[in-house]
Design the sequence.
């Protein structure tokens, strides 16, 4: 733990906010088309219809804001999942959220001919919610109720279930494969601001909810018996946490597709900085998750310029070594 006092953590939070804002600014300015601060400002104050102004308004700004919101949401969802399951490798994938969202998108394209990105967004959001609540229900069956092991196994089973059916639909439907392939890789490219605005109310509600749940999650982390002894309603806390996870992870996946590893990497990084108190871990996750996805998206523009790689590929490159390190350390322990 690097920051051991509340004063140091507060200062670190301010530094994180500054880096977060700078990352958004960098995302707006950097890319194949050269732009400047003046162009970015004039695009809104003195719009002249130039190619640079159009790119800033319709591509760069929405892309930066979407990356910031999605990265923050995935990181916070990962932190809550790891606390709820007591599994350091937990992430939105552990509850089958990504797989459920992808399956519902492919299902919509195949059977309902949904073509617009907004329609696919809501299909993905519904799929994420169905997957998460199914996992929660299956993990709660039995006399012991909801346990970390049962939740993890139910999540893995549902992820495999949805992924198998998704692959089956893609095999028999080339049109669906063409339309959904880039989305399935995870990307913030080509999304307009309307998509973010349609999901933003749910994300904001979940951000607030995660902060309100921070202290109850701290108590729950000490064990169900201890939490009950301290007067906590453990079932209500777990259910509320599951709803927040659905809103965060489901909303993020609906906007940008299944972007991996942020929900695993960032909570560990946040805890290494501020410790295990979720009153600090959650806001740090929000900032660090947004920064990581913004930086990864900027990198995705330059790797094979003038073409771009999906940002999900970049986060996988960053996150895979860390995932292996955590897994090996857990096995050694």
Sequence:
């Amino acid at each position: 733990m690097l920051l051991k006092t509340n004063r140091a953590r507060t200062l670190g939070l301010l530094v994180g906010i500054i880096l977060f804002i700078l990352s958004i600014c960098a995302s707006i300015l950097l890319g194949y088309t050269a732009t400047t601060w003046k162009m970015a400002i004039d695009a809104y104050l003195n719009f002249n219809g130039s190619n640079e102004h159009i790119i800033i308004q319709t591509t760069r700004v929405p892309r930066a804001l979407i990356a910031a919101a999605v990265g923050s949401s995935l990181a916070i969802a990962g932190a809550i999942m790891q606390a709820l399951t007591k599994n350091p490798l937990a992430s939105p994938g552990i509850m089958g959220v990504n797989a459920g969202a992808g399956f519902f998108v492919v299902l919509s394209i195949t059977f309902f001919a949904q073509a617009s990105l907004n329609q696919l967004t809501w299909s993905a959001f519904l799929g994420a919610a169905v997957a998460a609540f199914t996992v929660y229900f299956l993990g709660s069956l039995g006399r012991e109720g909801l346990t970390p092991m049962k939740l993890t196994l139910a999540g893995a089973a549902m992820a495999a279930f949805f992924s198998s059916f998704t692959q089956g639909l893609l095999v028999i439907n080339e049109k669906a494969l063409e339309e959904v392939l880039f989305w399935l890789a995870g990307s913030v490219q080509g999304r307009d601001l309307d998509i973010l605005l349609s999901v933003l109310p749910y994300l904001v509600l979940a951000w607030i909810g995660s902060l309100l749940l921070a202290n109850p999650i701290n108590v729950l982390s000490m064990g169900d018996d201890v939490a009950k002894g301290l007067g906590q309603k453990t079932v209500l806390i777990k259910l509320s946490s599951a709803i927040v996870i659905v809103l965060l992870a489901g909303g993020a996946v609906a906007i940008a597709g299944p972007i991996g590893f942020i929900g695993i990497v960032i909570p560990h990084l946040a805890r290494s900085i501020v410790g295990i108190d979720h009153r600090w871990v959650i806001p740090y996750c929000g900032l660090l998750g947004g920064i990581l996805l913004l930086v990864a998206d900027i990198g995705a523009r330059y790797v094979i310029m003038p073409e771009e790689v999906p940002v999900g590929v970049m986060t996988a490159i960053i996150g895979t070594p860390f995932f292996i390190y955590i897994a090996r350390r857990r096995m050694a322990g």
Remarks:
- The chain has a mean pLDDT of 85.
- The chain has 13 helices and no strands.
- Residues 110 and 176 are 6 Å apart (CA to CA).
